[in-house]
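Students often ask why we bother encoding 3D structure as a string. The short answer is that it lets us treat folding as translation between two languages. Here is a chain of 211 residues written in the first language.
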Amino acid sequence: MPAQVSETFVLRTYPYREADLIVSFFTRDQGKLRGIARRARRPKNTFGSGLERLSQVRMAYFLRENSELANLSGCELIESQFGLQSDYGCSLALDYFTEVTDQLMPPHEPNEKFFRLLRATLAVLRSGGSMWSAVDYFTLWSVRLTGVLPELRVSRETGEIVEEMFVKGLADLTPRDWTKSTLSGLRRSLIRAMEQHVERRFLTVPLLESL
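And here it is in the second language, the structure alphabet:
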């Protein structure tokens, strides 16, 4: 069976056996997958630096039907995020992007819009854009694209920011004075709305099951 090649973001790696790695990766055309990278922990391997956190690569892999783990045969590096790791704030943002993507994306369900969101957000960070603007933009769109975000009831200022984020790319947003107050208000509104949404779901399921 010929290998599949997908444009991919590497999410996480886990040690496996003596020299292998389990790799969680998010592909553009197949969604989130996991696979075994044989001999990836040895000094000479076919993966190089392509398995670093959020590296954008072309991943070659074999995936049998009904198999949970693919066999990874190699990758070609497209874009590395290594330059961002020297900045502490950006490094934490990378951890956040990785965690959100890994937790929100279900296995084997393609979501090209989410893939493009991740790629665009990382590109803005590499170009020197505002880290907090990138984090807020990614947060808003990630919960919107995965169906978590309910209708928002927010202040006028926060509503204007949110509305603009839905119709413009991150690089095209109107320059704003991102004060601590503005950012805190936006985050509080998003967190409160999501918490209320999750609480409603927790209440709704038991009620439906009791019918």
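Translate back mentally: The beta strands are 4-16, 20-27, 31-37, 56-62, 70-79. Keep this in mind for the problem set.
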